[in-house]
Design brief:
mainly alpha, 116 residues, globular
């Protein structure tokens, strides 16, 4: 269910490529966002997991725009570093049952720092 939101961007990849991309993204997100609040365990919360996985597409798009199709931990972390300070950790801790609200918060944080 959680992976349905990113199926369309991964369907052309092999199983090994999907594993590597997802693993690198989830590691980077957990390392930079969830570890900030000593809340690595939140990734096992269904709401947080679904929002995090759904958020992979816009993050991966930024990775591809900046680094080409190199979905490494370093590249994901470089992109996540740009917006991580705009993510309110208490929103993760009190995610409730709506992954869409948390996903909206993540998207707002991603877009929040844009300026020309």
């Amino acid at each position: 269910m959680a992976l349905n939101s990113i199926y369309s961007v991964l369907e052309s990849k092999t199983a090994n490529e999907i594993y590597m991309i997802l693993n690198n993204y989830l590691f980077s997100f957990s390392h930079l966002i969830l570890s900030e609040a000593s809340s690595e365990d939140y990734i096992t919360n269904a709401t947080v997991f679904r929002a995090t996985v759904s958020f992979m597409q816009p993050v991966a798009m930024r990775v591809k725009d900046k680094f080409g199709p190199e979905y490494t931990i370093d590249n994901f972390e470089r992109v996540i570093e740009e917006f991580k300070t705009r993510i309110k950790l208490n929103r993760i801790k009190s995610a409730g049952n709506s992954y869409q609200n948390l996903l909206k918060h993540f998207n707002d944080a991603l877009e929040g720092g844009f300026s020309l």
